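Q: Could you predict the 3D structure of NAD kinase?
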Amino acid sequence: MKFAIFGNTYQAKKSFYAENLFRLLKQHDAQLCICREFHHFLTADLNLNIPAAELFDGDNFFADMVISLGGDGTFLKAASRVGKKDIPILGINTGRLGFLADISPEEMEVTFDEIYNNHYKVEERSVLQLRCNDEHLMKSPYALNEIAVLKRDSSSMITIHTAINGAPLTTYQADGLIIATPTGSTAYSLSVGGPLIVPHSKTIAITPVAPHSLNVRPIVICDDWEVTLDVESRSHNFLVAIDGRSESCKETTRLHISRADYSIKVVKRFNHVFFDTLRNKMMWGADVR
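A: Sure. Here are the predicted structure tokens for NAD kinase:
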């Protein structure tokens, strides 16, 4: 098998995990191609001895499987590079919670044994697409987690006129609004009171950030519907964050958000159960008394 490898370039203290990863891949005679930035971090900054491998920039690669070594942020960056390539991604978690990257370093050896024995499963995760006339946003318009509109500074709230399939939903007076996939329901959306959504539910969550009105609540809609946003701001601009990548946007820009025409494939161990993840990662329902 050929693996394309992405990794976190800020966590020098976790270099041991990279060494172990390459050792296990060598045992399986795997072919390797490594993101050039990550390779430079490992060799120049950490002085690690890395096996011979192809190096690539951007999305100029092909492999049977992608490995993301880091947290969910690293996984999101890898997913944006994979895009429409239809290559499954294995997330090895060296970060904190790890919903996307949920294979612990201690599980690496058994996980690769399972992969080479074809004893694993691949989950398809929906992706959001943004359409607008802002060329900066259109350079990378896809989100695996969420697309959020946010006030640009610490001043007053923004006004977000929201429509579903062209029909008015409501006007939010808030610090922002998050449009999240089921995958993103455990990320930013959850932190501001959004609902937990099962990954395969084919839905989108719309969650306001610090709404001015207490009777405004999150809403879940079908993922084949389109959300249209018109934003007003006293500063006449606002932020658009696509999986954490933010750009300033003029208030005259109308945003159209819908499900993309492709999905991201996530590698999971064969016995993986989403509800186990909720209990283990979030201590869901745990009684600490």
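Q: Anything worth pointing out?
A: The domain at 2-119+270-282 is CATH 3.40.50.10330 (Rossmann fold).
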